Amino acid sequence: MTTVQDLARIKDLQLSQRRGKRVLVGLATCGVAAGAEAIRTELLAAGEKFGLSDFAFDRTGCIGLCAYEPMMEVHRQGEAPYFYVNLTPERVREIVEEDFSGGRKLDQYILGGEPLKSQLRIALRNCGVIDPDSLEDYIAQDGYLALGTVLSTMKRPDIVDVIKRSGLRGRGGGGFPTGLKWEFTAKAPGDHKYVICNADEGDPGAFMDRSILEGDPHAVIEAMAIAAYAVGASEGYIYVRAEYPLAVDRLNRAIAQAEEMGLLGEGIMGSEFSFHLHLKLGSGAFVCGEETALIASIEGQRGMPRPRPPFPASKGLWGKPTLINNVETFANVPTIIRNGADWFAAIGTDKSKGTKVFALGGNINKTGLVEVPMGTRLREVVYDIGGGLPGGKAFKAAQTGGPSGGCIPAAHIDTPIDYDSLLAIGSMMGSGGLIVIDEHACMVDVARFFLEFTVDESCGKCPPCRVGTRRMLQVLERITAGQGTEEDIVKLKDLAEGMKLGSLCGLGQSAPNPVMSTLRYFEDEYYAHVREKRCPAGVCTAITKYWIDPEKCRGCTLCVKVCPVSAITGKVKEIHEIERDACISCGACQEKCPFDAISRR
Amino acid sequence: MTEIRVKIDNVTYTAPEGVTILEIARANGVEVPTLCYHPKLSIVGACRMCVVEVAGSRGLMTACSTVAVDGMEVNTRTDAVVKSRRNVLELLLSDHPMECLTCEAAGKCSLQKYAYEYSVTGATYQAEPRDHDLDSSNPFYLRDMRMCITCGQCVRVCDEIVGASALGFSERGDRTFVGPAFGHNITDTTCVSCGSCVDFCPTTALTSTHGRNRLRTANIRKVTTTCGYCGVGCQINLLVDRNEILGVEPVEGPANDGFLCVKGKYGFNFVNHPDRLKTPLVRRNGQLVEASWDEALELVARKFSSIIDQHGRQSIMSLSSARCTNEENYLMQKLFRAVIGNNNIDHCARL
Amino acid sequence: MDNAFATQHKEELGRLRELIGQYRGRHGALIPVLQKAQDLFGYLPIEVQGIISEGLRIPLPEVYGVVTFYSQFTMVKKGKHQVAVCLGTACYIRGAKDILGEIQSRLGIEVGQTTDDGLFTIDGTRCIGACGLAPVITIDKEVYGRLEVRHIKGILEKYRED
Whole-prediction pTM value? Predict the structure, then answer.
């Protein structure tokens, strides 16, 4: 059994044992994919070679600077920590010899500036800071103190009240007030209740939940225990995607550790409260991110949503009152309990409190995870934090909310990012994927991409989504193939309205959003496709034609050689020509031409 | 029981607590269209036809699944409601084979009925019909999944009421289809051929084989009767055209609640069969010849009497039938105990 | 059951029955049992689904319905190496289509198919959350990020040699 006093003792011990010199290697999925395991092996070997026994080489989760993986963070007592980035085993050997052993920093490998500038890390507070496999490391960051506090000093309604007053809203997409969900579940009559963590992060382009589970699994476990105590539940499930094997590993280990320390299970921390936590693996169905589909999936059925009401708070898993929150939502909870509702409510905007984690991706220099206060402007996220677009290309739009969301065009780049502002401009927060799109993307094609996704992921239960997504995709395919008509655009709008009105769950209701928002801001691109049979971005190959300007062509034959289908004719020093029927519009010739003689229409 | 008051289309109705909007509407003659709903089955809210507007609610609500609460204001025919229903029909019809001219279900098909009511032609988003082979493996009914609208009534009736669980949903999205596991034929399953799925199907995805291409043209007379196969007393309607039975449909009787077994539903061919015995036969000079009931019974009585005279009362036994009613079986044992004078009575189930 | 299947998979079938025994009567057992069965056999053939249906007393159409609903379950035997191309948004924007095209043309198969030598199966996968390294593919459990079309040949060669 562990008490609040024990937590303090473990924290002191952990901090006192910590060596003055620490090197942390980020070992989340991104880091590992970039080769971080080899980096760590090299680091340990080199450390041994140079006899660096005063250094601790620790592991940690993801700090969110994916563009710089693999990387390591160097801590020396009394000094500001710094990052060595884009590591290779050779660089590691050099760094160990020159810096760790010789004391000469290698500035050329150090990430300059303030890497975490403008960020405020609450949900990600421990990611890239602690060893996710060490419960003691988590406790050293005041982990489980919030659970200890609620169990020993707080009444159940008071906990719910703190969450309500904090203004925390669901981070999975819907933005429903978390405190209200807790209250409904707490007040629902029932002898057996459940708490579920929705870790079925399916929005392509969003990976904050994975990062939290991989970097700070105990934060979610602690929050679930607090929630369970507050609503009167004794059993919980974490429903996690099977595509996240590392997160599953770390959660399994963390649950075992917490059970062993009496932080989960019977009589937690000496109280009367018991909470048993299980892991359930998804099997590949995006729709299971919808709460009623997720429940059906835990129950062992096809993940098909059910009409609400009844809401899970009154009739959820196996018909019992059930609280479902998402990973990032839970990750905020322990800090809110420790620092108080007022502290949290002071961050963010009037109706969107706290911070939001965004996964920056697409055409942006510093891809990665960032956590900023709600209300931060998109421009700041893209340019100040994300470092702008590669090659200085122009920002065309940002896509938020994945297949349920919409795009924010350049004209709205100064929109503050919060739930209501995004809705007002036809997008949505979603789970926080933020894909930056540059001038080279065709917005009709982007909409088509998302519809392809929803067609594949529709559960098939209700006709507006099952048939509607397919028909919508067919219209978009016609348009991108140059076979669309103006009437098709009317059909798209009509169908979008019908799907939004009639679909059973959020997936179908929001499936038309990518189409609606691209139509709203880039309607001219749609008309270019249907009226002029032209794709302005040159993405839709079926209607993109390449031409050689005879004035500019010098007959160098480079394009002839690079053409994969031998569609270009012409001998040296003669003007070349593209055979229209043979050309597949791949654009390779245009890229190769040194005289800028090939253009696209 | 607490009573609640609910306003539907500006008329206030009272209802017991706990009932759904749809139940109140139907009880009071307010028409709300449904394709996946059936009062005997679990509620899934899938077809989206019963959407209504509920004051104060975000978005449209399905009347079938929403429990009414006191003071609720419901509108069943607003612009949004009609728009949504039309969209559903438009989509369902977009890949539905347009074979109404020859379709067995024409006239009783819900899809056709609502398409007419909402003036939807299905021409807006034309698409190829889905590719499904006709399953004619079962002698009693056909499965044409091109016609299926995935309402799932057949799956639920087979699972929840019949208990055969022969059907299920497979795949997902617009590849979803209803049928036996592994796309097998229905005869390779636990199907008991009771035909309940056929009775529940709102379209022509499931239709009885017998009477095909005749039922629509025939001058059908419905004759309500009791099924003769066993003593349960299931109520049925014989679908009769000029003294020929073309089909049977279940009737909501106290014993069968609107369901039948394979015999009651499909075992009617014998009625019009040329080999069927219509009068008693007696043997004269080694030949079986037709006789009247009086003649036949008189013969049986005479033979029984002579057997008893020669061999005693214990020399005769009776076998009654499980197909008879309790009353008939009662009379049979009465006949033996009181008239013949023994207890030698048994019935066919022990044969 | 097919006798050939039974003899070929004697050991796995024994373990499957053990597994079913552990889960019988438990709430929500079907999906974890299917997941573990797929780990055992590499896929979920009709025979295996039949045993699970009987063992857990869940109607066969329901078992089959669950298997065909979730994209991670497969009824087709997969190749020795699973090449999964992430088709998430970030990867798409950064050229996953070209990467997939290159893999398909190098292996001569489409998504969902297995090469004749039984070495590779290509899957298109949902976002694996390594968007920072887009475009990415995974082969078995190995993740390859920041890919360009020219990298593909070398990566595939590595698996041919093993």
Answer: 0.91
